[in-house]
From TrEMBL:
Any single Pfam family the record assigns to this protein: GST_N
Gene3D superfamilies: 1.20.1050.10, Glutaredoxin
InterPro entries given in the database record: Glutathione-S-Trfase_C-like (IPR010987), Glutathione-S-Trfase_C_sf (IPR036282), Glutathione_S-Trfase (IPR040079), Glutathione_S-Trfase_N (IPR004045), GST_C (IPR004046), Thioredoxin-like_sf (IPR036249)
GO molecular function, one term: glutathione transferase activity
EC code(s) of this entry: 2.5.1.18
Highest taxon above the source species: Bacteria
Keywords linked to the UniProt accession: Transferase
Record protein name field: Glutathione S-transferase
PANTHER family: GLUTATHIONE S-TRANSFERASE GSTA, GLUTATHIONE S-TRANSFERASE-RELATED
Domain GST C-terminal: 90-215
Similarity annotation: Belongs to the GST superfamily.
């Protein structure tokens, strides 16, 4: 059965790999699973056909036969459970990898997303200049904890790259524009190792190609 995912017709980040469909593309590339992409405009994301797949009107979604999924964590976990390579065989190591998936999305990402909220959503508010340093401090605190746990390891649980690392690297990439990631050399190197993986390179190139191509006539 053909796997189809949805992605932005035009990503807000211009194809820099920060949109969440990149995470799903990366997982599919790591698993060696072929897939197709259905591009969705901002308007179409709020229409009934897409809302039937994603009740919150976001991307990505994942369709395969009569299965339809949303939320990148759930999608990546589903992919990882289908093919070897993204989750360890050992039961305890597997459980730890899944724990890191949850940690990336539930513990590390929320303060990082606040950076975007303050800069773009609240950019014209009078409290922006006071709020941003507080958000920076919260992100630094979380990154410091993560850096201490990673230590000198290549990956979060030692030598095995897992779905936990895939999601964590994807989350940390969102902190790079702020300059905060570069304050932690170990984490910056960890992210660079993730970006160097051939599967990530293919996923990044695929998303960039979509955003580099001209929109269909009448959609400019």
């Amino acid at each position: 059965m053909t796997i189809t995912i949805t992605a932005f017709e035009r990503s807000p980040d211009g194809g820099k790999g920060l949109a969440r469909d990149t995470r799903v593309r990366w997982a599919l590339e790591e698993a060696g699973l072929p897939y197709e992409v259905r591009l969705v405009s901002m308007r179409a994301m709020k229409e009934a056909a897409h809302l039937a797949l994603h009740p919150f009107g976001q991307i990505p979604t994942y369709e395969e036969g009569d299965l339809a999924l949303f939320e990148t964590g759930a999608i990546v976990l589903h992919i990882a459970e289908r093919r070897s390579g993204l989750l360890p065989v050992d039961a305890n190591a597997r459980a730890r990898a899944i724990t890191w998936m949850f940690a990336a999305l539930n513990t590390v990402e929320p303060p990082i997303l606040e950076l975007v909220t303050v800069k773009f959503v609240e950019g014209d508010k009078p409290w922006k200049d006071e709020r941003m340093p507080l958000v920076h401090d919260r992100v630094r605190a979380r990154l410091a904890q993560l850096a201490a746990r990673l230590g000198n390891n290549d990956w979060l649980d030692g030598d095995f790259f897992s779905a936990g690392d895939l999601l964590m690297v994807s989350v940390l990439l969102r902190a790079r524009p702020s300059g905060l990631l570069d304050e932690f050399s170990g984490l910056a190197a960890y992210v660079a190792r993730g970006e160097a993986r051939p599967a990530y390179q293919r996923a990044f190139a695929a998303q960039l190609a979509i955003n580099a191509a001209p929109l269909p006539t009448g959609r400019e």
